[in-house]
Structures are given as structure tokens and as C-alpha cells.
């Protein structure tokens, strides 16, 4: 699929498709329109009908059809069967969308491709298509167009920190909808932190009785002196039924949920409930202010590994994801230096220092995950002391870690703070913005991000770059509306970074389409930051 996309306000799809051919005329959905689904496409057809029905009030019937539909007035979803000797098989996430005055046809090799075709189709309809009740006196027209589309990267992600502030399940589901709307497919769910543990583990009930709650929370910025606290208990957790609901909801939208269980650092909330897993045996307290703790899991204590393997066993039962994220970032070594058990482990395992002890820790966890058919992914600190043999690296401290890992033959997801930390401010005028952790990451800088560091990768290593993702750390996100303010429209720009071709990339063109897109986000009740750009 080659060729530049000429997009106008009439066809304002985000992320920008690979190829768009505008045509004159339009198709109108009416009370007699049906959705015809070929074998295997029924679930996607029902999904489309369920979006269209409430707002249009049209009883769109879904019917199965064994061959391609050419009949007038209808929408058809067809799975194209490719064979092994097909010279140019369709990518599993690719689709074509053809809108003529006569009918609408979406074709793909998989249900996932059809789903992305549906997302593009919905963006061709008036924004009111997303309303949950019937819109009066509306006409549901779609401009005629031919689209061929396929994503640039396999990992198109968004991360959410439910640890620093607990995020209600309903909001997580809303974010998953917004991810699907932007053709993102990897939801990295940060579930454990020094400030709160958020996932029910049946074997360890104190994780939800104790670790999920903190006594109070810091008011204002972490740098403030003196520090002031709000005196209010904060917390919450997702039951295993909640988790299954989220995972199923995401799967229906072709999104994989990658859980993150932090280790060896960012774990003081666990130690508050199970102090025997720390080097000093405590007492510990679920952290009430930001920044990480010196207190981490004891790497010399076998009980730590028993605990983590039991936790991960339940995690793997809940999350079918190939990848399990084990954190690995920001683990201070002070306690290990003083701990007789950790020092004994260093000696017995012939390790050079505490960095190698961290590497020992991560390698042991990787073996456990691999034995269970899963793959380990961790922040780039897992490179220190030697990378586990099959690990995938998530590069956040710039891109060097990711580049090194890819050059060593490991898979990489780029998440550099410089371009993808959506908790950073959106302008340098920090006093005009709500309190944030700092930094300045305006929309244009997110849009400018290029995840493929070709000039630094050894030839032939590019395929190790799985993609990139946006980070939503929640220290300074007290509620869901605030998360939306920080995420949008920057996540919209990032969706284009990971989906759209490099060829034809233009911030001006993006802004032109964003105008229409923001009207959709209005209907979807997204509290995005208003643009201060003037074209
Ligand atoms: C991180 O921001 N500590 C991954
Ligand atoms: Zn120790």
C-alpha cells in the first residue's frame, strides 16, 4: 500500500490512513440499511450496529452473507481468505474501506482488520453518531472514498498508572474505548506502586486489606517544603472479576492488556502488609508522598520469590497477554548493601555487585514466566547488571537503552519520557496549567516523535522495534477528568506516530483533521485540553 494521503476536513480520519482516495458523492444510512457479514465477521458487524443504533434510532439488522455483497444501500464486512501462495497477503491488521453512493464495503484478512475499518467508517460519519440517545433530525451520510490502510507498528500502546491514584473501573473501560477509537492495541496497566496495590490476589488477602490503602496523600508538588498532607484515606483495588471484565472488554476491541507488577522496587505497599519480604523487616507504611522508596524486596530471601511466583501465577490466570511487565525501574540498592541475606546471595551466586543482584532477580523471574509460556518485559533499568536472555525492554530514560537492547537482538518498546510522558506539562507556561510533575511536552513535540532510531540501529535490527506508547503516570492526576486533560489530544497525536506512515507526516495536516476529531471527542465527553495553536 503506497501513496500519499490527501486528507481534507471532509475526510478527517485520525490516525491518518496509508492511502485515501476521495470521491464525489455520499452514501446515506437509512432505516432500510443492513450490515452484511461474511463468515467470521459477525461479531464486528454487531459491534458496528451497536454503535450506530442508539444515536441514529435505526434498527440496523445484521445478516450473514456467504459471498461479497453488492446490493444497494447496505454495509458489508468481508473477511478475505489469503492462501499460503498468495504473493501479497494482507497484513492481519490491514483493511480496505470503500464507500460508494451505492454501498459501503470493508474488507480485511482478520476480524481485527475489519474492526479498524469500522473505526475509520465511524470517523466518516457525523460526530453525533457516538451519542447514546437518538439525535433528532439527523442525516447519516458518509462521503464516498476509497481507503487502504495498515499500521506502521505492532505495539501501539497506552499506559495507565492506577497505583498513585486509584482509577475506577468504569473510567478504565472508557479509556479502552478511546484507545480502540485511535486504533491503539496495547494497554499497559500499571497495577502496583509504593502508594498502593490495586489487584486482588487470592493467596495474599492483606494486599487488598492493607496494601491497597494509604492514610493520606501529599498536597501540592513533591518539591514543596514543608510538605502538607490531606488527612484523607485513599485507595481501592480491582477484584479478579473486575479484571476479567476489563480484559474481556479490551479483547472485544482487539486490545491486549499487559499487566505490570513492579519488582524489586516500587513495592513498599507490599512490604506494609508483608514486612518479612523487606531487608529490614519493617515496619513499613503504604507511601503517602511521591517519589520511590529506599525499601524494596529483599533479593536474598527465598520467601520473596515464593511470594512473587504465587502472585504471578494468579496474574497469568487473569491476563492472557504474551507479555507480563515486571517493572524493574528505579530500584535503590542501599538496603541490599546493608542486608546480610542479600550479601550472602551475591557471594553464593558469584555476583559482582548489587546491579548483578538485580539482574539475578529479573532473570529468575524471567525463567518462571518463560516456563509458563509468557515473556518478560521491563523498564530499561533491567539492562543494568546484564539483560535477561529473552527480555523485552521498555525504554523510558531516553532511547539509548532501547537501542542497545535492539542491537543485542531484544525486542523493544519505546516510551521515552522526552516525547511520550503525558504527565508532563503541555506548555512552558506552567502557571497557566493544573499542577503537574514538570517538564514541557507540547502536542507538536509528541507528534514529531519518530520511534525508529534508524541511524543508531545496527543494520537489520529494525524489526526488534515493536512500537511505542504514551505514559499516564498519576501522581498529579487526582481524578479521571484530569487524566483525560493530560491524555488528550496528545494521545491522538501519538496514535498517528505509531499507526501512520512516515511518508506524508505533517503537523499542519494533522491539526486540520484534529479540528473535526475534537468534535468527536466532545461527543465522547473527553475533557481534552483546548488547542492554543493558531494555524
Ligand atoms: C519510570 O518512569 N520510572 C518508568
Ligand atoms: Zn535483603
Kindly report the CATH topology of the largest domain.
TIM Barrel
Q: Give the cofactors and ligands.
A: acetamide, zinc ion
Query: How many strands, what sense, and barrel or not for the largest sheet?
Result: 8 strands, parallel, barrel
Question: Which class of secondary structure composition applies to the elements?
Answer: alpha/beta
Which stretches are poorly predicted, pLDDT < 50 over at least 5 residues?
A: 1-7
Let me know the average pLDDT: 95
CATH superfamily of the largest domain: Glycosidases
**Contiguous helical run count:** 16
Looking at the overall shape, the CATH architecture of the largest domain is Alpha-Beta Barrel
Biggest sheet strand order reads 8-9-16-17-18-19-20-21
Domain Beta-hexosaminidase bacterial type N-terminal: 11-149
Domain Glycoside hydrolase family 20 catalytic: 153-501
Keywords: Glycosidase, Hydrolase
GO biological process, one term: carbohydrate metabolic process
Architecture blueprint of SSEs:
Elements: E1 19-29, E2 34-37, H1 42-56, E3 61-64, E4 75-79, E5 95-99, E6 104-108, H2 111-124, E7 140-149, E8 155-161, H3 169-181, E9 186-190, E10 192-193, E11 196-197, H4 206-211, E12 213-214, E13 218-219, E14 228-229, E15 234-235, H5 240-252, E16 256-263, H6 268-273, H7 302-318, E17 323-327, H8 334-338, H9 340-348, H10 354-371, E18 375-379, E19 392-395, H11 400-407, E20 412-414, H12 417-420, H13 443-448, E21 465-470, H14 480-487, H15 490-499, H16 507-523
Bound molecules: acetamide (ACM) and zinc ion.
